[in-house]
Amino acid sequence: MDIPTWVWLVTLGVAAVVLIFDVILVARRPHVPSTREVATALSIYVGAAVVFGIGLWLSQGGERGTEFFAGWITEYSLSVDNLFIFILIMAKFGVPQRFQQTALLWGIIIAIVLRTVFIFIGAAAINQFSWVFYIFGFFLIYTAVKLATESEEDEDWEEPKVVAWIRRSLPSTEEWSAHLFTKENAKRVITPLFITVVALGMTDLLFALDSIPAVYGLTKEPYIVLTANLFALMGLRQLYFLIGGLLKKLVYMSIGLAVLLAFIGVKLVLHALHENELPFINGGQSVPVPEIPIAVSLGAIVVILGVTTAASLIKTRHDEQVGASSED
After folding, report:
1. Using CA of residue 136, residue 140, residue 146, residue 152, what is the dihedral sign?
2. Could you give the CA distance from residue 202 to residue 206 in angstroms, rounded to a whole number?
3. In the chain, N or C terminus with fewer CB closer than 10 Å?
4. How many angstroms separate the CA atoms of 167 and 20, rounded?
5. Which residues, 6 or more positions from 213, have their beta carbon under 8 angstroms from its beta carbon?
6. Phi first, then psi: what are they for 211, rounded to 5°?
7. Using the 8-state DSSP alphabet, how is residue 219 labeled?
8. What is the helix (H) or strand (E) element at residue 63, kind and residue range?
9. Is 172 helix (H, G, I), strand (E, B) or coil?
10. Which residues, at least 6 apart from 96, have a Cβ–Cβ distance to it below 8 Å?
11. Is the pTM value of this prediction over 0.85?
12. Those residues with Cβ within 8 angstroms of residue 182's Cβ, 6 or more apart along the chain or in another chain
C-alpha cells in the first residue's frame, strides 16, 4: 500500500480530535457511565471500524480489507484479556468508580502514542531485516505457551518500575480528583489519578509487545496495523464498563488467546522461512514451505474466538447449575 502522508496525518488527526472530545466530555462530568451510554458509544466505534474496513476493501482490494478485519478482531480480543489487568490496577489503586473512565481514557491516550512509536519501529525493522519475522513468530509461540500454562494464581499485576519511581520522586496528594495535577499548599502536585494513568499506559505498552507482532503476522502494512490498534483501543473504555461483570464468565479466554497467538506465531515463522535470508538456514535461500492465506487466518481467528466464548459460557452456566443444585 502506498499511503500518502496526508492520509496518515488525517487518520491521526481524527483520532486526536475524538480523544480530545472524550477528555473534555468526561472531565466535565465525572460519573459512572450507564449501560446504555457505553453500549451506544461502543456501537459507534464498532460501526466506524466496520465502515473503515469496507472502505479499505473497496479502495485497496479484498486482501487489504481482510487484513484489517483480521488485525482489528485480534487486537480487540487481546484487549478483552487486558481488561482483567485493568480491573486489578483499578482495585489496587482504589480508584473511585466515578473517576475510572477518566483514568482509562488518559491511559488509552498514552497507549496510542506509545504504540504508534512501536508500530513505526517495527515497520522499519521489518523493511530492513526479514529475519525479524523469526523473532516475532517465536516470541508469540513462547507467549502462547506461557499464557496456556500459567494458573489463575499466577495472574497478578506487578507495578511497573516507572510508577514506583514516580511515587517516590514526585510530590503528590492522596486526594482524588478528575485532574492529573492539582495545587496543595500553593505547590503543584500529582494526583492519584496521574499515577493510575501512568500505570495503565505502561501496562498497555507491555501488552503491545504481544499484540503488535501479532498484527504484523497478519499484515505487513503499517497503516493497517495502526488503524487496527486505533479502532480497538478507542472502544476499550466502553468495553471495560460494558462487559466488566462478564469477564469472569470467559473462563477459557486465556486458552483461546494462547491458541490464537500460537497460530499467528506459526504463520510468522512460515513467512520468515519463505523470505529467508539467513545463511545458516537453507544456505540463505527461501525455504519451500506453505504460507497461510489471510482469508484462512481471518477464518481461524473467528473460529478460535467463537469456540472459546461458547465453551466459556457453557462451562460457566454448567458450574452455576451445579452450584445451585448443591445448595438445594
Report:
1. positive
2. 7
3. C
4. 27
5. 122, 136, 139, 140, 268
6. -70, -40
7. -
8. helix 62-93
9. strand
10. 176
11. no
12. 173, 175, 188, 189, 191
Please, what is the average pLDDT of the chain?
Answer: 85
Task: Say how far apart CA 241 and CA 235 lie, in whole Å.
Answer: 11
Higher pLDDT, 158 or 199: 199
Measured distance CA(305)–CA(291) in Å, rounded: 22
pLDDT at residue 245, as a whole number: 61
How many C-beta neighbours within 10 Å does residue 325 have?
8
Give the sign of the dihedral formed by CA 237, CA 239, CA 243, CA 249.
negative
Average pLDDT, integer, range 185-202: 87
Residue 223 has pLDDT above 90, yes or no: yes
User: Cell numbers at residue 1, please?
Assistant: 500500500
Q: Are 285 and 276 in contact (CB under 8 A)?
A: yes
Q: What type of residue sits at position 198? A: V
CA distances from 146 to 143, 153, 178 (A): 5, 14, 37
Element (H, E) at 271: helix 253-274
Query: For the chain, what is the domain count?
Result: 1
